Amino acid sequence: MSTTTDEILYARTDGTLGTFAIRPLDPFADAELLHGWVTHPKASFWMMQDASLPDVEREYMRITAHEHHQAFIGLHEGRPAFLMETYDPSELELVGLYDAQPGDVGMHFLVAPSDQPLHGFTRAVITTVMAAVFADPATERVVVEPDVGNTAVHALNEAVGFVPERPIQKPEKEALLSFCTRARFEAATGITKESSI
């Protein structure tokens, strides 16, 4: 299946910050952009600080070709502004670390570095990411496993409805396993599937 970087998969308008959208990631066309994001000092929890441009290209070629892992570029007002990944936690990342349920979707997101940060931007990004994941009616629950030390993302996660479950030990980090059901997301944000399409 071929995709173009013009294909919008999901879009929503934030009352304060404007339009957010999600498109497929192209590992070749987007590699240079991604390299700048994942190697930035603020992306230390992404664990790609020392990656070369070919490393980034290979990693996202692997992800986009994977049956159980997807990657997307998020746009703000039409410009690339964040990275979003989804995965099947019964097949990747969390296999054997928790009891996966039908409808579980794993999620990662990374906001691009900016010289002019906008107040509330990261919260608007995670809200968009979550709304996009829940736009699929098959999604029942979103699962995340951020580093236990990443307190900023724990607070963001809780703001959109995540409830921490417990710390888990992954090969690369100690992580805080957290879950967000569709009902919790809707209660935390007021966004329903019907209101966000």
Describe the overall structure.
The protein is α+β, with helices and mostly antiparallel strands. It has 6 helices and 8 strands. The chain has helices spanning 31-38, 53-65, 121-134, 151-159, 182-189, 193-196; strands spanning 10-14, 18-24, 69-76, 79-87, 104-111, 141-144, 163-169, 174-181. Strands 1-2-3-4-5-6-8-7 form an 8-stranded mixed beta sheet, with helices on both faces. Helix 1 (31-38) packs across helix 2 (53-65). The longest helix is centred in the middle third of the chain and has 14 residues, at 121-134. It is globular and about 35 Å long. The two termini are 24 Å apart.
The biggest sheet, with number of strands, parallel, antiparallel or mixed sense and barrel status, is: 8 strands, mixed
State the end-to-end distance: 24 Å
Quaternary arrangement of the chains shown? single chain
Order of helices and strands: EEHHEEEHEHEEHH
Share in β-strands: 25-35%
Radius of gyration: 16 Å
Poorly predicted ranges: none
Number of helices: 6
Number of strands: 8
Structural class: alpha+beta
Helix fraction?
25-40%
Strand order of the largest sheet: 1-2-3-4-5-6-8-7
Gross morphology: globular
Question: What's the average pLDDT?
Answer: 91
